[in-house]
């Protein structure tokens, strides 16, 4: 599938490198990958971690021979990057954007191109090959382009195809979701410390509890409410805590948080902030 392809990763920070780590060697040989960063320090770190790929700060040179161009800078950093690549982007190169909120028609207009565009919304667990990515094809992308982009993100976790309209919700849920789960793990750890557990013990127990509960949900295919019922002995400890969480509106809090993040994703297409 990737036999004839050359990949340019423009803005290889956290997300760009997560993908790089999964692709290198398995799907693409390192000599057909080129990655860009602005800073000297960033480029040096890339060269250290991936000595066999090409690293540069020259985005125009990076896209000159690329058949797949992954745009992985922050949304507000894209103007300078687009100015650099606009004159030299190959017309038929597949452009994959992970920029939160930015629509494919906005990207096409800003790049002044009819290139096939696929949007992807990964998340940081891609760094450990446990990412959750949703992908949406822009109007000029074919099924082949979507399949190619999907295969890239499947190298670092799971991938779902959605409509472009659903991308803001995905950004609020799984794109931003690790932040909420990290907060939960931190809070659970503090709760253990509050009850007298040593912090390192509490941290290991809370992390493994979240990991185990996620794995059980995924592997069993059971509804989470059924699994929760399995933990709650009548008159026992877990139901006492569940009642406390319900009283404080855990469910509503999460629904509202995802709604706020989804709205913020929508706003990003309209602003440069
Ligand atoms: N972090 C997350 O959880 C997620 C992020 N995203 C999206 O992924 C994108 C990247 O986020 P993330 O990886 O966290 O951000 P990072 O800041 O880690 O990475 C962005 C990189 O872009 C580089 N960069 C900026 N401008 C240029 C330029 N003109 N030329 C070359 N390199 C450039 C920066 O390099 P330098 O540091 O050298 O200046 C930086 O390393 C964003 O658009 C975000 O919306 C999507 C899903 C999840
Ligand atoms: O906060 C952000 O903009 C990025 C996009 C998804 C997760 N983090």
UniProtKB/TrEMBL annotation:
Residues 164-268 form the Pyrroline-5-carboxylate reductase dimerisation domain. NADP(+) binds at residues 72-75. One of its GO terms (biological process) is L-proline biosynthetic process. NADPH binds at residue 59. One of its GO terms (cellular component) is cytoplasm. The keyword Membrane does not apply. Pathway: Amino-acid biosynthesis; L-proline biosynthesis; L-proline from L-glutamate 5-semialdehyde: step 1/1. PANTHER family: PYRROLINE-5-CARBOXYLATE REDUCTASE (PTHR11645), PYRROLINE-5-CARBOXYLATE REDUCTASE 3 (PTHR11645:SF0). Belongs to the pyrroline-5-carboxylate reductase family. This is Pyrroline-5-carboxylate reductase. It comes from Longimonas halophila.
